[in-house]
Amino acid sequence: MIEILQWSTLATCGLIAAARVPSAVRGENRSLFYIFGLMTVAILLSIEKPYVAIDQALGGINLANLLLRFIIFAAIYFVGIRVTRGFGADSAYRRITGKAGMVVLLVISLALVVLFFMMDTVGSSAGLAAVSEKSERNFVLVEYYGAAGRAYPAYISLVLLPAMVRAVRGRLPILVRIAAALLATGGVAIALTLLFPVVPPEWGAVEFVINYTAVLCFVLGLALIWAARVKNSRVSPAKRTYTEK
Amino acid sequence: MTLPAKAFQRWLQGIAPDASTADVCRISGIKRTTLAQQLVRGKVSVSTVVSISRAYNVNPLSALATFEAYQDLAGPQVPPSRCELVSQVSTPDLLRAVLARPAMEQAGASGTASPPLSAAPHATSVKNWVDAIDDGEVRHRVSAATGVAPQNYSAQLTANRLSPELALATALAAGVGPAGGLVATGLITEEEAGWPPGARQAALDSLSDGDLTALAGDRLQALGKVLRRQEQDQAQTEKIWENLG
Known about the structure:
The structure holds 2 protein chains of 2 kinds. By secondary structure, chain A is mostly helical.
């Protein structure tokens, strides 16, 4: 079940990234292509087999996990910038790119790196599951490391949330409003990941579902806005000739 | 609100005793599936009754009055007030009337008879009608009488819609002729409501230059607001597509 979710999320994201190649070549919103590309790589790295293969190439000390965290940070940072710009959420934009946003990013990144090198990380293992089992100390460190890795996406998605709720209630085209609802759902899911340390271990599957729900919501939300634009540009020339007659 | 199918069948028996459902549909131009569905659900729409009564040369107003929910439509017809009549003049017609007034005529282009008024309803006829009969408390009284939330009522007006029972309730709450709202919503014609021919033109002519100009100003201001809001929405949508499309 979880495997299906993982691979289908990867496929969805990869297909959208591939579909954006032509417009990226034309120079239309390249950063969106990078967002989808980064997300695809991030999902790839969170699946066991590709993760182990890539990490082995990087020396087998789970550097790929650290890389994954920063890829997620980069993707979510660009999502934050694009979405706040697009939806005209200026205060949210400042909270991401301004001093506060930079301080949050810096502190979390430092914590992430420091925690990573405090652990004994030898032996590739997706999600650092095997690393965590090595010792009590490692177990605690992995928990903190994971929390730091989820903190930045949660920060961005909470910053985006008010603007998304406003957009859903507004008078924008219906596809854009559905997209905003998806982005808001994804944001809530990411914020929920902060609660993972208190989730009982037997509910492990819940964590997977929340993670992939968040990714899917973000990817589909962004893709839907794109679809709305494509649809509009197809409809409006016809409309124009009709009214100009 | 719809009409109970039983009462509808009884009424239909009265005006077309021997006609089959198929005949009724053919004569009145209603789709057979539509009527069949309404009968199965036990809820016949008001517009069905209006179409059928027109087809059988029955006044739709008196037809509706035979149903319990619309019995207020029975009785002697109350002539429409001047402000109701003027509210059913479309904004373009109103502006033409302003331009034809001596106060506005400087170029001496007088003598051209203005074209006849376009028939009610017009693009903002529902909102203009309610504004014309509103003493400031009508919306509250309607919402108290029908249990419809004020914001839902306002939303209908903004969309230039009003369900027949709300139109009736509004007229009753404002103390004007019960059929006025049905004319403003386009359910029945002025003639069917017993408005004298040329009444709107006469009401328009009876306005002083000052009143007419002020009214036209109000209409233009409202129109400007709507157009500006549409432009803002459009600009926001464009911005979203520019950043995320």
